[in-house]
């Protein structure tokens, strides 16, 4: 049976001092208590560790061997305890994060950077939005980041970011000269919406903005689901309803204007319903990040 670690640590102090009085003072206990602990340690080991006389303390062969081998063993034990405490506090682990394409422009990278800065290992992968909540629920990924409050069982959703809705348009578009664009004014031009299959929640939310607009809007879905060059907007007519994060990936020649009176779009953190300390720490870090970057209203 291994000795208790406290007695072993006391022995190492005594092995350095080779004097009970000095060792007891250094540890902060009475000398008789230190002597009693050393006797118990020797009894557990079944061998003498010390040769005592009235003037000095000398290590036996067993004592010298223990004094040499015990420090690395105690250091390894300390590391094990520290690892266990960090795991219990959610400070250790590898996170698998799934994020939607639109969240990958600005929000997901900022959160991943923050998590890595806090000492966590992170693997992030882009996923189709409708797949993210089910993947969190069944454990294929640990965390999801989605635009819009996506449906799904077995998960909890936390508002991570709220943003204005506007339109992307060419810099030479007639509406680009205005600081804000009216919904009816935007409806007078062709409106590009994302494919509904990619994100039904956001598609429906964006199209609903123009439900009562006059004239009736002309919606279309691009043949290429995600075109970095935004070629269809360069005709100087087509508008693309989008959140303000679109500015982060906007190519030259395009600009973004907020829609006057439009409700906000949201980005959500998706976690499993039953959460580990690691999940709870991710939520706390995300909350701090949202506050630091003013992602949510005060």
TrEMBL record:
Species per Swiss-Prot/TrEMBL record: Nocardia panacis
Gene3D superfamilies for the chain: Periplasmic binding protein-like II, Winged helix-like DNA-binding domain superfamily/Winged helix DNA-binding domain
Record keywords, A-Z: Activator, DNA-binding, Transcription, Transcription regulation
UniProt similarity note: Belongs to the LysR transcriptional regulatory family.
GO cellular component: protein-DNA complex
Molecular function in Gene Ontology: DNA binding; DNA-binding transcription factor activity
Record-given protein name: LysR family transcriptional regulator
Keyword Translocase assigned: no
Domain of life according to the entry: Bacteria
Annotated InterPro entries: LysR_HTH_N, LysR_subst-bd, WH-like_DNA-bd_sf, WH_DNA-bd_sf
Location of the HTH lysR-type domain: 3-60
């Amino acid at each position: 049976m291994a000795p208790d670690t406290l007695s072993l640590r006391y022995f190492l102090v005594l092995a350095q001092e080779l004097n009970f009085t000095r060792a007891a003072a250094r540890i902060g206990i009475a000398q008789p208590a230190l002597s009693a602990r050393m006797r118990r340690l020797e009894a557990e080991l079944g061998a003498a560790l010390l040769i005592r006389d009235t003037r000095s303390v000398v290590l036996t062969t067993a004592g010298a061997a223990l004094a040499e081998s015990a420090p690395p063993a105690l250091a390894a034990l300390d590391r094990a305890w520290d690892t266990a405490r960090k795991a219990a506090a959610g400070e250790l682990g590898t996170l698998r994060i799934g994020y939607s394409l639109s969240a990958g422009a600005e929000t997901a990278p900022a959160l991943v950077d923050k998590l890595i800065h806090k000492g966590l290992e992170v693997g992030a992968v882009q996923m189709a939005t409708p797949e993210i909540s089910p993947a969190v629920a069944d454990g294929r990924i640990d965390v999801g980041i989605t635009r819009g409050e996506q449906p799904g069982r077995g998960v909890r959703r936390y508002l991570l970011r709220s943003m204005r809705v506007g339109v992307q348009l060419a810099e030479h578009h007639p509406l680009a000269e205005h600081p804000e664009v009216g919904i009816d004014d935007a409806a007078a031009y062709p409106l590009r919406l994302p494919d509904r299959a990619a994100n039904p929640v956001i598609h429906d939310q964006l199209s609903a903005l123009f439900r009562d607009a006059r004239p009736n809007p002309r919606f279309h879905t691009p043949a290429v689901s995600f075109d970095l060059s935004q070629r269809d907007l360069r005709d100087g007519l087509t508008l693309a309803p989008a959140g303000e994060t679109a500015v982060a990936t906007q190519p030259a020649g395009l600009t973004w204007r907020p829609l006057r009176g439009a409700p906000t779009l949201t980005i959500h953190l998706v976690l499993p319903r039953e959460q580990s300390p690691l999940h709870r720490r991710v939520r706390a870090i995300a909350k701090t990040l949202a506050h630091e970057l003013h992602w949510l209203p005060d």
